[in-house]
Design goal:
By secondary structure, the protein is an alpha/beta fold. It contains 15 helices and 5 strands. 55% of the residues lie in helices and 6% in strands. Helix 4 links the parallel strand 4 and strand 5.
Amino acid sequence: MDNFKNLHVLICDDSITNSLILTKLVSEQVTTNITTVTDPRKIEHTLQNNTVDLILLDLEMPHLSGFEVMKAVRRQFNADQLPILIITGVQGVTTRNKALTQGANDFLNKPFDQVEVILRVKNLLKIRQSYLIHQQSTDELERAVKKRTEELDHSIECLLYSLALAGELKDDDTGRHVLRVGKYARVLAEGYGLPNELVTMIEQAAPLHDIGKIGIPDKILLKPARLDQLERSIMNQHTNFGHELIGGNSSVLIQMAQSIAYSHHERWDGTGYPNKLQGESIPIEGRITAIADVFDALTTQRPYKKAWEIPQAIDYIENESGRAFDPALISVFHNNVSSFTDICRSLADEPDKSFDPA
């Protein structure tokens, strides 16, 4: 047995008599909710403030014709979303075809047969119910897909961080270096005006900038002194190793990480490595991570040096504008030194008492 008790029918007819007849007929035979409008100018307001599942519409009315009403309705709802049944005293195939062409789902002439009215109303309410069921299923599927996508994105983010941490454990047992670099990169990306989605991706991918160091021999990576020329050339290979290790992937986030690993040692003046890219030819994510990485390297204790004071590191970064770093990003850095300082202090490593200044 059909159940339409939760659906709403709107009757729009300037004739009070016809409205009362249709209201009594539909409410008794279909068992649904009825709203009546005798002034067609009120129909848009009614639709805005009420749920309507079917409209029974006359064509010949004062102020607005049924065709004008249909035009207004169809600007908001298509034929499946809100069916329209024309019940009119206007005779002729031309009128019927015009109504069906311009948005009516069905058409009846007055005087109408009551049984036929009920059958047509029930059929159109079934169409509306099918639409609602389909819409509900679509919404539930979209919510499920969104939830699954969020879970997958979170898993990828966690995996990337774990991979970045693994690449740093040899010479950074706290893992805070990769965390700080990501935070610094976010500050720069936001200040540069990049879209929010891209800002988040750069923050997530920047920690993988040195993943290629996994391929560098420990005697070079952990050397407690400055590297000689040969050792430095080997160390510089970590950008190529990182590019190869991350590899190609359809994930945009993975592609971002690969780009950062490959380009974060390029210099604005073209003297960097591995490809001696210059200026805007360096990917923006690489230019951003370069500043974040150098600032963190300067302000962090290493086996061969003490940590610089923050003002000293800031001066160095700003003095490298136009040489190592993008001048536009240095301007962003200058305007956000307080954020860099806060991150540096709040995520600082524990002091390493094994440092030997000799």
